[in-house]
C-alpha cells in the first residue's frame, strides 16, 4: 500500500498546535502511512522566527508562508496560525491551485467560509476543519456525515473552555467573576487579553460553524447574537442554584418553525441557567461538550477536551489523513452543503424564558405592580417566589416562553417601577426548572 | 446538482429499523437529494410477509432477497434483517457486483467482517456500518476517521441498553436481577429471549468491531472474553455502592504493552464496579455511551440512544448518504484498516483489579489466612475492610492490579479456606476506588 507517492504537507505555524502537528507527523509516520496508503512528507513549516524552533530541521523552516502555499510540490496545507489576514489569502492560494487545506481557524471559517468553500469547490479539492470547533471532539464529521440522513433541530454547546472554567469556579467557590477570571489567568486557562473568550467572540464563531454545518445553511459570525460572561455575578450563580440550575455560557443553534410554516435558524451565545439534570450541566472546568437533538437520532452528546496543543493536533491529523487518503484513493470529502438557505432570526424574535430576581418594597400591591409589567408586555409568568428580607422583599420570577424582545422590554419596565429597588439578576433559562 | 441519475436503494428487511428507513427515505427525499447531489430512489424492499407492510407500495415489496441484491439497477443495499445466514451471502453478492452496502448487523461484522471487507475491496465499493454499534451515536466514523491521526489506547463502552437498564434498576431500587429483568421485559427493554443481551453476546460483537476499528487490527467475536450480567446479585450492587461505585456491563478494548515491548489488544465484556465519578457511571437506563482514550486527543465521550427504530435508521441513512455521495462524486470511504495485526490477549493475562467480599469466622487469624491466599498467588492487596456481624464477620478486599488468571485462582483458593463461609461478591473494579 505504501508504495504510492508521498503526500507532501506544508504547515503554517508552529505554535502550541503546530509544534504538536509537526511532532506527531514525525513520530507516527508509519501508522499514518499505513492508514493513508502513502507516506506523509513534511515539505515545509512557515514560522515567524525560525530560531525559536530548534526541534524542527532548519531546511524545513521558512518565514515565507506565501511561497510555501504556492509551491506546486505541496499537496496539503495545514493552517494553524489563526487570524483572518493574511491567512485567508494564503489558503485561497493553496485551494485555487488544487491543494487540500486543513484548518483549525474558527474565526476565518465563520467570517470567510463561503469564499473558501467556493475556491475548494472550483478546484475540486478538500477543505477540512474538524479542529475549528471543540478541539479534539469529533463534531464536524458527525454533524455533516453521520447525521447527514437526519434532521438536526438543535445544537447546544459548551465550546469555550476559558468561560466554562470561570463559571465552574464561580459555581464551586461562590467566587466573583473578577476573582475567578484572575485565577483562570494565573492557571493558564485564560489569556492575558481574555476578550475573545469572555465576550463570547470565540464561542460565536463556533456557533456560526455549527449552525452552518448542522442546518445546511450559511450562518456567519455576524449573524450570531453574542453576550459574554463579564456581567455574570455571584448573585446570578446563587440565584441559579436556588432553582436547581448552574450558569453556563452556551452556543445555541436552533431550527425555528415560523408562524407562517416556514423555517429559520437562530444562532446565539449567551449565559443561561441550565438545570443540574441536563447532561451539559456536569461539564466542568476547561472541558467542552456539545449536545445535539435530531429528529430520528434523538439526543446525542459529545464530550472531551476543547483546546490544547495535542488534542487540537489530533483533530488536525485526523483531517490530514482524510484529505491525504482522498488524494491517494481519488474522490473528495463532503463539500459545503448550504442548500437549505434559511433566514437567521434576530434575537428579539427568538422564544426565550427569563429568570428575574428583584429587590422590592415589602408591602401589599408590589406583586400586582410587577405582575402587571409582565402582563402588559404579553409575557406569561411561570412561577413567582416571594422572600421577605426585613425592610425589603425579594421577588424571583421565572417566565414562560416569550419572544426575547418582549422579555427584554419587560425588564426595562421593571427597572422603572417605583416599588422595584433593584433588579439583582436577569438571565435566560433553559429546560424544565422548578 | 440533483440532475444526476438517481442512486437506487434496495432494502433488506422492514422490521423496527427497516420500516423507519423506508419511511425516512420517502419523507426526506428532497433533503437527502440535496445532500447527495442525486435523488435516492427506493428500488425494492425484501420482506418475509408482504401483507404485513401495507404502508410500503406493493410493487416495491418482494420476498426474494437474493434476487433484489443481484439486480443490476440496485446501487446500494441496506441490510437490516440481522443474522449471519443467509445475510452474509446476500451482502457478498451485492458487494461482488460493485454495489455499496450499508449494514446494521453487528454479529455478521464481528464474525465475518474480513470476508465482507475483502469483497468490498476487490470490487472497489463501500461497506459502511455505523448503525452496528450504539445505534444513532456516531462512533465508527469518529473512530476510523476523526481519530485516524491519533493512537487510541482504550475504549470503554456501555453498548447494550437492555443490560444497562437492568443494572440501573438494580442500582436504583435494590432489585434482584430476576425482578429487574422481568420489569425490563414488561416495559419492552428486554426481548422475550434475552440471552443475546444478558449473556453479553450483543456487547461482545460490538466490542469486536470497536477494537478492530480503533486499533487497526482484526478482532473477531470469538476473540472477545464474555461474561454477562445474569450472575450479578443485589449483594454485588450493594457492595459496589459501599466503595462509591456502580455496577456496569462494559465492553472494554485496550491496547496493552507487553513486557517484551510489543503490543497486543484485549477485548472483553464483563460487569465492573465503576466509580460514580467516572463519566460512564451516570449513563442510566437504555442509553449507550462510549468513552475513548487516545494519546493526543485525551478523553472523549459519546452518548446517546443505543437502539430503537428511528435512532438506528438515522445512523443507516447517514451511511447511505455517504455511500451514495461517493458513487455520485467518485471516490470511496475508508477501507478496512487492519495493518497493525496485533495479537489478542487471553483474559488470563489481562491486568485486572478485583473486589471480593467474604463471610468469614469472626476470630483472630482469619485475616492472616485470607491474606496468605492472596500472597501465595502473588496478588497484592490494596484495601481490606473488616465488618463484624454477630457470629460472622465480613471481609471486603480490593486488590491491586494483577493478571486476571492469578486473581481468579485466588478466588478459587478462598472458596476452599475453612475460615471462609461464603464468597458473597466477586467483581472486577476499574479506576480509583476507595
TrEMBL record, chains A, B:
Q: Which gene name belongs to this protein?
A: thrA
User: Catalytic center at which residues?
Assistant: 206 (proton donor)
Q: What superkingdom does the record give?
A: Bacteria
Positions with a binding annotation for NADP(+): 12-19
Coiled-coil annotation reads none
Annotated positions binding L-homoserine: 191
Could you say which protein family the record assigns here?
Answer: Belongs to the homoserine dehydrogenase family.
Q: Which UniProt keywords apply?
A: Amino-acid biosynthesis, Methionine biosynthesis, NADP, Oxidoreductase, Sodium, Threonine biosynthesis
- A Pfam short name: Homoserine_dh
Catalytic activity entry: L-homoserine + NADP(+) = L-aspartate 4-semialdehyde + NADPH + H(+); L-homoserine + NAD(+) = L-aspartate 4-semialdehyde + NADH + H(+)
Q: What EC number(s) has UniProt assigned to this enzyme?
A: 1.1.1.3
Q: What is the role of the protein in this entry? A: Catalyzes the conversion of L-aspartate-beta-semialdehyde (L-Asa) to L-homoserine (L-Hse), the third step in the biosynthesis of threonine and methionine from aspartate.
Name of the molecule in the record: Homoserine dehydrogenase
What this protein needs as a cofactor is: a metal cation
PANTHER family linked to this entry = HOMOSERINE DEHYDROGENASE
A GO BP term here is: methionine biosynthetic process
InterPro entries assigned: ACT-like_dom_sf, ACT_dom, Asp/hSer_DH_NAD-bd, HDH, HDH_cat, HDH_CS, NAD(P)-bd_dom_sf, Semialdehyde_DH_NAD-bd
Amino acid at each position: 500500500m505504501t508504495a504510492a507517492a508521498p503526500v507532501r504537507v506544508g504547515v503554517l505555524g508552529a505554535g502550541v498546535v503546530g509544534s504538536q502537528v509537526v511532532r506527531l507527523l514525525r513520530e507516527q509516520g508509519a501508522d499514518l502511512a499505513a492508514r493513508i496508503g502513502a507516506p506523509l512528507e513534511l515539505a515545509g513549516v512557515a514560522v515567524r522566527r525560525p530560531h525559536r524552533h530548534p526541534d524542527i530541521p532548519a531546511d524545513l523552516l521558512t518565514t515565507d508562508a506565501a511561497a510555501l502555499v504556492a509551491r506546486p510540490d505541496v499537496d496539503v496545507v495545514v493552517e494553524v496560525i489563526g487570524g483572518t489576514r493574511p491567512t485567508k489569502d494564503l489558503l485561497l492560494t493553496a485551494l485555487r491551485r488544487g491543494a487540500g487545506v486543513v484548518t483549525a481557524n474558527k474565526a476565518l471559517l465563520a467570517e470567510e467560509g463561503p469564499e473558501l468553500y467556493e475556491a475548494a469547490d472550483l478546484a475540486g479539492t478538500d477543505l477540512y476543519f474538524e479542529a475549528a470547533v471543540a478541539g479534539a471532539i469529533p463534531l464536524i464529521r458527525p454533524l455533516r456525515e453521520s447525521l447527514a440522513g437526519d434532521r438536526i433541530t438543535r445544537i447546544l454547546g459548551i465550546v469555550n473552555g476559558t468561560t466554562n472554567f470561570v463559571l465552574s469556579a464561580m459555581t464551586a467557590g461562590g467566587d466573583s467573576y473578577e476573582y475567578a477570571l484572575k485565577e483562570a489567568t494565573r492557571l493558564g486557562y485564560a489569556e492575558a487579553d481574555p476578550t475573545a473568550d469572555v465576550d463570547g467572540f470565540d464561542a460565536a464563531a463556533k456557533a456560526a460553524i455549527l449552525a452552518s454545518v448542522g442546518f445546511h445553511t450559511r450562518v456567519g459570525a455576524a449573524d450570531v447574537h453574542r453576550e459574554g460572561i463579564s456581567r455574570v455575578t455571584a448573585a446570578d450563580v446563587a440565584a441559579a442554584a436556588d432553582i436547581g440550575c448552574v450558569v453556563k455560557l452556551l452556543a445555541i443553534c436552533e431550527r425555528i418553525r415560523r408562524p407562517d410554516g416556514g423555517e429559520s435558524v437562530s444562532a446565539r451565545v449567551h449565559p443561561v441557567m441550565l438545570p443540574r439534570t441536563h447532561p451539559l450541566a456536569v461539564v466542568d472546568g476547561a472541558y467542552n461538550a456539545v449536545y445535539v437533538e435530531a429528529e430520528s437520532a434523538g439526543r446525542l452528546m459529545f464530550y472531551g477536551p476543547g483546546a490544547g496543543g495535542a488534542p487540537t493536533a489530533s483533530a488536525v491529523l485526523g483531517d490530514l489523513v482524510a484529505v491525504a487518503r482522498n488524494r491517494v484513493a481519488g474522490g473528495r470529502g463532503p463539500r459545503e452543503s448550504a442548500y437549505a438557505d434559511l433566514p437567521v432570526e434576530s434575537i428579539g424574535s427568538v422564544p426565550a424564558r427569563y429568570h428575574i430576581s428583584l429587590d422590592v418594597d415589602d408591602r401589599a400591591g408590589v406583586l400586582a405592580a410587577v405582575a402587571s409589567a409582565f402582563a402588559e408586555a404579553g409575557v406569561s409568568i411561570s412561577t413567582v417566589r416571594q422572600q421577605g428580607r426585613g425592610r425589603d422583599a425579594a421577588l424571583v420570577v421565572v417566565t414562560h416562553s416569550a419572544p426575547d424582545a418582549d422579555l427584554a422590554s419587560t425588564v426595562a419596565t421593571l427597572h422603572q417601577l417605583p416599588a422595584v429597588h433593584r433588579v439583582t439578576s436577569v438571565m435566560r433559562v433553559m429546560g424544565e426548572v422548578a
